[in-house]
């Protein structure tokens, strides 16, 4: 775990994170998903510009009611709220558990197959495009090329 | 510093400034014809190890390290773009240029795009037409391993070397809507290899095209053109920021003065100078190249250098369907496109038109962003806390995007100038953009966004949400050094040679007379090939200072 984020700040973040992402719809809250821990470190490494303003927000929020503080940011300080919400959400969706629950495999490799003819060629949809199109406009009239199908 | 073949101080036949889409084409063609080529590129090489595309953090890469906005990304090679323009120009500086981060939509201009004055009474005709570019479009498509389906009746006959990418569930959903309305659509054409082709591997559909393709399946001059050019003896100097085009006493270009990463200045002499630094960078360099003979900037006797900036104002429509669409699946390039409303129609309250295209919607963070933007009225209690998961449940995996890309017409008040205060890391003036979206463009966007919503509803959408005009540009920087036959109203001639300087050429998107509604890379690359082959053919008649 990255030592530059103190345990105290992580505790503050846990409260704020749950104010933004509570448990519900079969998904864990942000803190239960591990947002204040390693996931936060990975998020901040991916988006370094979040670190400094987030730390300032966490310091300011210490001792405040997390829900009340989050609402205050949302209502009055949209830039700070964006820093907080991006950090929390970015970390949350790095969780393998959360990804599994929402059915997200990540931007994974998924080789394509060109073996089957596209549906739009089989069902006549594209032929209809060709039939109804007036042709391209070059002079004042229209020109046409041969049908692809 | 890469490439070998000649000692550093030896004058080149041609110096190319910029190693992006147009520079890579020029370098490959000229080297192949036996020219001694040096290319000066202010950025560096990137490779798959630099990308975050195959990492779980891929969605986060957009926020900073691979943000399309250079002012946020802040690579050492980037120069600032300032100003309070309605649309902020963006670019990528490095080998491959904007192609490192492009969506790879491969779209030729329409035949009518070259003749808008004649056909519609607006702007200007190009000095060249469709037939001048047609053979080069086909060759550029082969060089870029384009995947597409021929036969679109909106164009004369086109050829692509690879079968089209699957349009996926989102493409089929969108196409059903167009089919019900009887509107034009066609499977997307993309410079992404649907099967191994030339130097490219087959696409793995990661959907991370815009933060760098980790599979080397998306075409990029760094993969498609530079390997051959370097093998043929071209010399590509990276980290070389050009500050001025040097002239001889007769006002001919004699090379380029650049600053290396150690801060040392060099003069790279050459018989011919080719600017390929995009519509902002080339205009910037001309404006920086002042001299007693050219006090307002080089090649600027028309006063048009930097003016007539066009950027394709852009809006999006988020479309949410009941059905599962695997919205994160790639490629990011267009699934389908439509040119139904790309031409002027008498019933419209605007002239010219827009291109519509379908893109995937991305991962869960994008789903939440779009959902929350669309439902701002719900306030904190409606979006966060216990309600947070609603966004992922309703939008993630079920959405696609209609992109609405408008043709903005050239206006001299829309321009690139040098910032009087802000500089890059070498102390050279930043680019300042002055750009307003015209009333014609706003009407065009309103109309076409409404049509995208109509098409989505015809497809069975359960929700749609229309964005405002994107304040960040889509890296289409066009028109700032326009071509034309009249030297008083254009910067370069039909062969893209500066009217004022006989051995200075410009080949990037700055030479566009009008923008059309098409993504510009196909035309930039085809036109560069046309121009450079003419240069090769006319080599014995080329005036030079070296």
Tell me about this structure:
The complex is a heterodimer of chains A (149) and B (546). Chain A is an all-alpha fold and 149 residues long. Chain A has two domains: 7-102, no CATH class; 114-149, no CATH class. In chain A, 58% of the residues lie in helices and 3% in strands. Chain A contains nine helices and two strands. Chain A has helices at residues 7-20, 30-33, 35-46, 51-61, 66-76, 78-92, 96-102, 119-122, 125-132; strands spanning 136-137, 142-143. Chain A has a two-stranded antiparallel ribbon. In chain A, helix 1 packs across helix 4 and helix 3 (35-46) crosses helix 6. Chain A is elongated and about 75 Å long. The N and C termini of chain A lie far apart (59 Å). The model of chain A has no long low-confidence stretch (mean pLDDT 93). Chain B is α/β, with parallel strands linked by helices and 546 residues long. Chain B has one domain (12-45, 69-84, 93-361, 397-541): 3-Layer(bba) Sandwich (FAD/NAD(P)-binding domain), CATH 3.50.50.60. Chain B contains 14 helices and 16 strands. In chain B, the strands form three sheets. In chain B, strands 1, 2, 5, 6, 7, 8 and 16 form a seven-stranded mixed β-sheet that branches. Chain B has a six-stranded antiparallel β-sheet with strand order 4-10-11-12-9-15, sandwiched between helices. In chain B, helix 1 packs parallel to helix 14 (521-537) and helix 5 (130-143) packs across helix 14 (521-537). Chain B is globular and about 70 Å long. At the A-B interface, helix 3, helix 5, helix 6, helix 9 and strand 1 of A face helix 2, helix 6, strand 4, helix 10 and helix 12 of B.
């Amino acid at each position: 775990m990255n030592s530059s984020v103190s345990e105290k700040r992580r505790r503050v973040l846990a409260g704020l994170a749950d104010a933004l992402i509570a448990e519900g719809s079969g998904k864990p809250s942000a803190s239960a998903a591990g947002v204040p821990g390693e996931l936060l470190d990975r998020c901040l490494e991916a988006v370094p510009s979040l670190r400094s303003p987030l730390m300032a927000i966490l310091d300011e929020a210490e001792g405040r009611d997390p829900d009340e503080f989050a609402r205050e940011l949302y209502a009055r300080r949209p830039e700070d709220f964006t820093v907080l919400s991006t950090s929390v959400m970015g970390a949350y969706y790095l969780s393998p558990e959360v990804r599994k629950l929402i059915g997200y495999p990540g931007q994974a490799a998924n080789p394509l197959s060109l073996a089957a003819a596209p549906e739009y060629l089989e069902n006549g949809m594209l032929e209809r495009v060709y039939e109804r199109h007036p042709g391209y406009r070059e002079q004042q009239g229209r020109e046409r090329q041969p049908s692809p199908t | 510093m890469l490439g070998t073949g000649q000692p550093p101080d030896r004058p080149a036949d041609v110096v190319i400034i910029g190693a992006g889409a147009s520079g890579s084409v020029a370098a490959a063609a000229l080297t192949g014809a036996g020219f001694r080529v040096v290319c000066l590129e202010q950025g560096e090489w990137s490779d798959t190890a630099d990308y975050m595309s195959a990492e779980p953090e891929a969605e986060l890469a957009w926020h900073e390290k691979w943000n399309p906005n250079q002012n946020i990304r802040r690579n050492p090679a980037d120069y600032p773009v300032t100003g309070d323009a309605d649309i902020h120009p963006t670019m990528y500086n490095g080998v491959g240029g904007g192609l490192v981060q492009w969506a790879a939509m491969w779209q030729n201009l329409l035949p009518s795009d070259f003749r808008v004055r004649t056909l519609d009474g607006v702007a200007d005709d190009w000095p060249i037409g469709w037939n001048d570019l047609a053979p080069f479009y086909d060759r550029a498509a082969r060089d870029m391993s384009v995947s597409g389906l021929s036969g679109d009746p909106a164009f004369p006959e086109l050829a692509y070397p690879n079968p089209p990418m699957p349009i996926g569930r989102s493409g089929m959903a969108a196409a059903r809507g167009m089919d019900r309305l009887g509107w034009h659509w066609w499977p997307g054409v993309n410079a992404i290899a649907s099967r191994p082709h030339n130097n490219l591997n087959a696409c793995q559909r990661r959907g991370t095209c815009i933060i760098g393709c980790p599979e080397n399946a998306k075409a990029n001059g760094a993969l498609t053109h530079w390997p051959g050019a370097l093998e043929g003896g071209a010399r590509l100097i990276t980290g070389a920021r050009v500050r001025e085009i040097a002239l001889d006493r007769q006002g001919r270009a004699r090379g380029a003065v650049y600053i290396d990463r150690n801060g040392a200045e060099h003069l790279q002499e050459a018989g011919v100078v080719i600017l390929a630094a995009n519509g902002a960078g080339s205009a910037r360099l001309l404006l920086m190249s002042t001299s007693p003979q050219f006090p307002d900037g080089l090649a600027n006797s028309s006063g048009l250098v930097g003016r007539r900036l066009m950027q394709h104002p852009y809006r999006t429509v988020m479309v949410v369907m009941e059905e599962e669409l695997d919205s994160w699946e790639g490629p990011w390039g267009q699934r389908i496109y439509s040119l139904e409303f790309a031409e002027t129609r008498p019933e419209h309250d605007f002239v010219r038109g827009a291109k519509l295209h379908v893109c995937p919607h991305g991962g869960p963070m994008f789903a939440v962003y779009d959902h929350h933007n669309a439902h701002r009225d719900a306030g904190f209690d409606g979006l966060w806390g216990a309600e947070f998961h609603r966004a992922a449940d309703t939008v993630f995996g079920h959405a696609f995007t209609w992109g609405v890309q408008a043709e903005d017409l050239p206006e001299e008040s829309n321009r690139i100038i040098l910032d009087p205060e802000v500089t890059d890391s070498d102390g050279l003036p930043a680019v300042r953009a002055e750009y307003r979206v015209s009333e014609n463009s706003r009407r065009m966007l309103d109309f076409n966004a409404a049509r995208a919503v109509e098409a989505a509803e015809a497809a069975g959408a359960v929700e749609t949400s229309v964005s405002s005009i994107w304040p960040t540009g889509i890296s289409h920087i066009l028109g700032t050094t326009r071509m034309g036959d009249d030297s008083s109203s254009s910067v370069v001639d039909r062969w893209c040679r500066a009217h004022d300087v006989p051995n200075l050429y410009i080949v990037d998107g700055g030479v566009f007379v009008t923008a059309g509604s098409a993504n510009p890379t196909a035309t930039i690359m085809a036109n560069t090939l046309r121009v450079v082959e003419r240069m090769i053919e006319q080599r014995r008649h080329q005036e030079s200072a070296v």
